[in-house]
């Protein structure tokens, strides 16, 4: 649905486009997400996705809203009491942004999960809240099988929980603070020629003070190599090299460029290598058979692997950080790096195009290739564990969990408590301490449930203290709006990272203790 | 359900927060007294909350407070709604552009959350006095300006009289930048205050004037050439308005010309706007996270149902998901909450202008145009003009001619929320 009269997207989305740019926004606008159950945590998540302009959302929920539902949910009003929770929430969420489509499916999530798995096929990503452990497990398995990223989010009293299960998520743009790829240790021909064109001894003082540090280091390394044969690698060698750079300074002349050179000595002396995790991505790509379904990430990885094999290096990033220099030298340096990176990218693009053509896949665009090459040193592939493996008995991570639970500030006990709560619910069909008068008896019952969970996982029953169990019963399945909004914020941020394939998502569980305001991420 | 034609509480409306107000627990502080009295207090005017700022954090804070059961809230904001707010400030629609943020936000909350009274003020925090600020139980800041935060912090701390507990006003403060943010609690005299941690603030990037004027390399240098050097020459009487498209167009054109002349790439209209307005990226999710953590602290402070954060929580979401919570230490020589005077050792050879320059570079104070006095003597005054002229010759005098070892120099500056007292020592 397009807005008729309204602001341009460039204006409206300016503050976020500065983070994920137009291609990130396009990915967001093409996404179609599903949210199971429209509790406050779910609508708070959706709010933060509707505002930045996600393509469309669907709410799967058959609950009739009650007074407590409306009390903590900004996207229900009192007229919704006794009516369909999902329908009202969909309307009030759609009202936030005319660019976004919203739909409500008035069906029981449990029934759809059990009998209609193809319902989930069309979604880019699935978010679940307020489901039983059995339903979470079944839904996660449906998504896992289809390669759909799945997020399970909950706010329980002062405890927040978020779990991401994704078979594979590849990231090109991780957005580090800066990209440094200067190849000082292995300069290409044009770069060496340029460095050689400076005759430092004949320069006027002003020009001398404006020689880019890259040129200073390239000349120094060349001289070092002439007498030592290899890069300075040991500490004494590096110190000697530093002294050599220092000796090139001209007394009485402003030395900002030399200071910059001194700061970069360590980096200049380190050999440019293909980082280990990138090398394994390239190896994986090489072993892959490209099919029409292969994503452009893997086609480009395959092309880059071929490039790296012949060049013994990754394509050049082509980025030069600002440095003390006169305009002309800096622009020239930038041009040298940029031209070389364009050549590299063009070669990778050509390889990718022929790989794609040979297998009937779509060839990556030049823009995509350029971004891939610029970020080649930073590629990341995330594969989380599945929820099925996490819930298997005994727990595969039991000993790590037991270790972490020793730390008094760790959030891991809250994970165990939530599993205890789910076991309690499965047995009693209600949440511990939901009613005030049940608190005393439920402490004992929850303790039993927790003991069962811990034993089945392979952990000591003493891992959870009585105080923690009592506090969990106190929570009485309350969904505090502040906690719902916090977890909605956290969950929506992960969704944005997943859909735009930019920045690095969580792997794989985040827990938050709203009493101490302490959070932690765990690989479970 | 209908009271005077207004829909008020319905059965179970407050079930979620009530759970924590009805029940004690092992993690509730000893001071916690649960029950109906506490619940009535939260809903009452005795528990009035001030929200400073009705922007990205402010909108979220108002919603969070209203849904946690606070029914008496004031909100202050001097800004009007801009199109670029709509990607996160969810109480505003396109039709509201140009209207007061505080007023539109208050109206929206009162409509959606019946029974909650939000009183807006469309103006500056400095318009209000101590009597106004003393009516609140908690003050929550959702601001994007360092200056406003410093003013609010200094004002609230100066109101605290240790003999009168009712003058103690906790501040809960939140801030965001892109995928990162922080939330903290300030208890006057017992935790670090905002001023204590001023050196943690990231300062806006500035480039040396000589780079801008003589050796531009980056597109930002060309934009600053247009805004800092060309604009004042071309329009000496007009200040740049980053929201005026004509101003941005002019700067963009001039910066583009300069970039072309030097062969520099990358000057765009978006970058021009970003540099001129010092735009910090802002997204709905980070705002939600920080505002929720902040309102959560307010709820715990107001009810004592659980301990509050000790005392600073950082959130980083761009690489994985990371929080770091730690106690920020008070500074003994903090000009706002400290008890020790600030000692400053300077070379005996310094002239007054050198002392002035060192003050401008001083970390953690961010001064702009300091005026200096010693006792009742003015050493250098930035204004009014006759006083400036009379004190100007002092700039060339040795500091040691003007003050004695151990004398206290009082520095006032528009960038300082209160005056800074420096005890001078000569090296
Ligand atoms: Zn302080």
TrEMBL record, chain A:
What protein am I looking at? NEDD8-activating enzyme E1 regulatory subunit
Q: Which residues form the THIF-type NAD/FAD binding fold domain?
A: 13-512
Family according to the record? Belongs to the ubiquitin-activating E1 family. ULA1 subfamily.
One MF annotation (Gene Ontology) recorded for this entry:
NEDD8 activating enzyme activity
Q: What does this protein do?
A: Regulatory subunit of the dimeric UBA3-ULA1 E1 enzyme.
Write out the entry's keywords from A to Z: Ubl conjugation pathway
GO BP annotation list: protein neddylation
Q: Which organism is it from?
A: Chytriomyces confervae
Give the matching PANTHER family: NEDD8-ACTIVATING ENZYME E1 REGULATORY SUBUNIT (PTHR10953:SF29), UBIQUITIN-ACTIVATING ENZYME E1 (PTHR10953)
Pathway it works in: Protein modification; protein neddylation
Lineage here is: Eukaryota, Fungi, Fungi incertae sedis, Chytridiomycota, Chytridiomycota incertae sedis
Q: Which Pfam families match?
A: ThiF
Q: Which GO terms describe its cellular component?
A: cytoplasm
Q: Which Gene3D superfamilies match?
A: NAD(P)-binding Rossmann-like Domain
Automatic annotation (TrEMBL), chain B:
Q: Which PROSITE patterns match?
A: UBIQUITIN_ACTIVAT_2
Annotated ranges, domain E2 binding: 344-427
Q: EC top class, in one word?
A: ligase
Q: Which reaction does it catalyse?
A: ATP + [NEDD8 protein] + [E1 NEDD8-activating enzyme]-L-cysteine = AMP + diphosphate + [E1 NEDD8-activating enzyme]-S-[NEDD8 protein]-yl-L-cysteine
EC number in record: 6.2.1.64
Keyword Disulfide bond carried by entry? no
**Recorded GO terms, molecular function?**
ATP binding; NEDD8 activating enzyme activity
In the record, the note on similarity to other proteins reads: Belongs to the ubiquitin-activating E1 family. UBA3 subfamily.
For this entry, the protein name equals NEDD8-activating enzyme E1 catalytic subunit
